[in-house]
């Protein structure tokens, strides 16, 4: 009799343990399901695309004052002056066309010079606008034309192009009597406005420094 009671008690205890294990298993399954459902329905903000950090040099300038050239200006010490024979696929009409190369940034400021008188002033201005807006039509998403006047009495227009254009910064500067100079900042890389933005902003200050220190001879 005692043996039967012991057997019944043991069987009841085994059933209780099995029941607890089953409840624990079910509870864990429900918890995992709830977490899965919550994670699928929760707001998720993807991490923005990152780019390599670019170490920017300290800004220091030196004077370009080459004998025989009709202009002088200040440019960064991390830039190199190189004579150029082409500008926007056009052959130079005089020896005063140059580039300012920035090797560490794969960048370059193209500079062309034309003499008013040999060229009509209105035509030079129209060509500068046409060249800038041609970039806008095909690649840039927007363009801003900003007239300016320099401390040395010259005037011009600065073109800022938005989007993945080959150049985001172009300008022309003139005394409207004899001298007309046009420039554009280019990068020898696949255009990407986001990744180039830090370098663009950095070199744009140098372009403006060139403009504001330019003098005619």
Mind explaining what this structure looks like?
The chain has 217 residues and is of the alpha+beta class. The protein has two domains: 1-44; 61-216, 3-Layer(aba) Sandwich (Protein Transport Mog1p, Chain A). Helices cover 36% and strands 30% of the residues. It contains three helices and twelve strands. The strands form three sheets. It has a seven-stranded antiparallel β-sheet, with helices on both faces. Strands 1-2-12 form a three-stranded antiparallel β-sheet. A hairpin with a 4-residue loop joins strand 6 (98-102) and strand 7 (107-115). The chain is globular and about 95 Å long. It starts with a helix and ends with a strand.
Strand content: 25-35%
What would you call the structural class? alpha+beta
Number of discrete helical segments: 3
Mean pLDDT: 79
Main-sheet strand order equals 3-6-7-11-10-9-8
Which radius of gyration do the C-alpha atoms yield? 34 Å
Reported by name, the CATH topology of the largest domain is Protein Transport Mog1p, Chain A
Largest sheet composition: 7 strands, antiparallel
- Which regions contain 5 or more consecutive residues with pLDDT less than 50? 48-52
Number of strands: 12
Number of domains: 2
CATH C-level class of the largest domain is Alpha Beta
Percent helix, as a range, is 25-40%
What's the CATH architecture name of the largest domain? 3-Layer(aba) Sandwich
């Amino acid at each position: 009799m005692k043996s039967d009671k012991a057997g019944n008690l043991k069987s009841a205890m085994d059933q209780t343990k099995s029941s607890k294990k089953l409840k624990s298993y079910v509870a864990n399954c429900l918890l995992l399901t709830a977490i899965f459902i919550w994670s699928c329905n929760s707001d998720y903000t993807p991490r923005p695309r990152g780019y390599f950090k670019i170490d920017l040099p300290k800004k220091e300038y030196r004077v370009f004052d080459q004998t025989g050239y009709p202009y002088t200006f200040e440019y960064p010490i991390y830039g190199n002056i190189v004579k150029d024979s082409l500008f926007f696929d056009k052959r130079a009409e005089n020896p005063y066309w140059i580039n300012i190369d920035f090797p560490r940034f794969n960048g370059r400021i193209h500079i062309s010079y034309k003499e008013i008188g040999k060229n009509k002033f209105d035509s030079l201005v129209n060509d500068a606008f046409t060249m800038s807006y041609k970039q806008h039509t095909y690649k840039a998403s927007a363009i801003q034309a900003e007239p300016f006047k320099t401390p040395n009495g010259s005037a011009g227009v600065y073109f800022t192009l938005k989007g993945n254009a080959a150049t985001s910064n172009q300008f022309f500067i003139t005394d409207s009597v004899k001298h007309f100079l046009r420039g554009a900042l280019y990068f020898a890389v696949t255009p990407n406005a986001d990744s180039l933005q830090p370098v663009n902003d950095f070199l744009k200050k140098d372009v403006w420094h060139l403009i504001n220190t330019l003098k005619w001879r």
